């Protein structure tokens, strides 16, 4: 998933409004492009110093190692990832040679749309193509499913399995515990703390408006850099991504890094 941006020019002033974005290369979407402007509106979902992503390949190596170990034990590997964007990024990054890959019914139609757009993904099959009682078909397989599938009766069809969650929120210990999965892989389609700084700096904007996520720490840091920074709330401030992180875990973010985001 990548962000579209809106550029508005009036007189000699240019404003750019971004959506959710990341600066790390991703073969499933076009790269984020900094646009020079006077005022930049940015998200700040992961706007705290604790959020620093490892290179994607290191994350996928970890997923492959976990999947390979489970396959050797005759277990299925169920990886929870958001159906649109995150799941396809996973399918483009894992080693399909380890075993068969199945997808939940919410994921597979989006996979087809990506393939129709010329994006290369690992070969997949629908979980529903396999009879519900045929648990042996999933031994050694990777199953990519949305987080909503966790704990549902749909999971019973896999027999012995290990589960994991791919999300930027997996950086926090509290979230990993609360999700109750065997593994957490830190993989996000949002920019991390250094990525936000890089993207904002590349615009050359003197005024920055921060919205969505960890707003106050980012505004404070920008002001310390001499920029004119402020914020406004949107109707999407409490969407599913932010709701995935309770207030107690937002406190953990501060405690893990100290009170001043530097």
Task: Describe this structure as you would to a colleague.
The protein is α/β, with parallel strands linked by helices and 262 residues long. The chain folds into two domains: 6-52 and 189-257, Ribonuclease Z/Hydroxyacylglutathione hydrolase-like (Metallo-beta-lactamase, Chain A); 56-185, Rossmann fold, CATH 3.40.50. The protein is 29% helix and 19% strand. It has eight helices and eleven strands. It has helices spanning 56-72, 86-93, 108-116, 173-179, 193-203, 215-224, 240-243, 247-257; strands at residues 6-10, 13-17, 39-44, 76-80, 101-103, 125-126, 142-145, 161-166, 183-185, 207-213, 228-231. The strands form two sheets. It has a six-stranded parallel sheet, covered by helices on one side. The two termini are 28 Å apart. Mean pLDDT is 88; it is low at 237-262.
Write a concise keyword list for the protein shown above.
262 residues; 2 domains; elongated; 5-stranded mixed β-sheet; Rossmann fold; 6-stranded parallel β-sheet; alpha/beta; 11 strands; 19% strand
Give a short summary of the structure:
By secondary structure, the chain is of the alpha/beta class. 29% of the residues lie in helices and 19% in strands.
**Unreliable residue runs:** 237-262
Into which percent range does the helicity of residues fall?
A: 25-40%
Q: How many β-strand stretches?
A: 11
- CATH architecture assignment of the largest domain: 3-Layer(aba) Sandwich
State the strand order across the main sheet: 6-5-7-4-8-9
């Amino acid at each position: 998933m990548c962000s579209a941006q809106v550029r508005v020019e009036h007189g000699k002033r240019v404003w750019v409004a971004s959506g959710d974005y990341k600066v790390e290369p991703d073969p499933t979407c076009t790269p984020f492009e900094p646009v020079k402007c006077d005022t930049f509106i940015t998200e700040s979902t992961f706007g705290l110093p604790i959020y620093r992503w490892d290179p994607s390949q290191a994350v996928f190596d970890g997923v492959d190692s976990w999947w390979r170990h489970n396959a050797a034990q005759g277990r299925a590997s169920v990886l929870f990832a958001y159906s649109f964007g995150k799941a396809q990024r996973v399918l483009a990054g894992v080693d399909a040679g380890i075993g068969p890959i199945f997808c939940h019914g919410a994921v597979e139609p989006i996979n087809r749309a990506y393939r129709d757009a010329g994006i290369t993904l690992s070969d997949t099959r629908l979980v529903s193509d396999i009879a519900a009682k045929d648990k042996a078909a999933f031994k050694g397989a990777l199953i990519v499913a949305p987080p909503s599938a966790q704990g549902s009766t749909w999971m019973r069809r896999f027999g012995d399995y290990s589960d994991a969650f791919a999300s930027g929120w997996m950086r926090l210990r509290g979230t990993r515990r609360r999700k109750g999965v065997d593994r957490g892989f830190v993989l996000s389609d949002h920019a991390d703390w250094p990525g936000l700084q890089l993207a904002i700096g590349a615009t050359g904007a003197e005024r920055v408006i921060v919205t969505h996520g960890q707003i106050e720490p980012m505004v404070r840091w920008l002001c310390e850099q001499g920029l004119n920074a402020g914020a406004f709330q949107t109707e999407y401030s409490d969407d599913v991504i932010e709701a995935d992180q309770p207030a107690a875990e937002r406190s953990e973010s501060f405690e893990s890094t100290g009170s001043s985001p530097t």
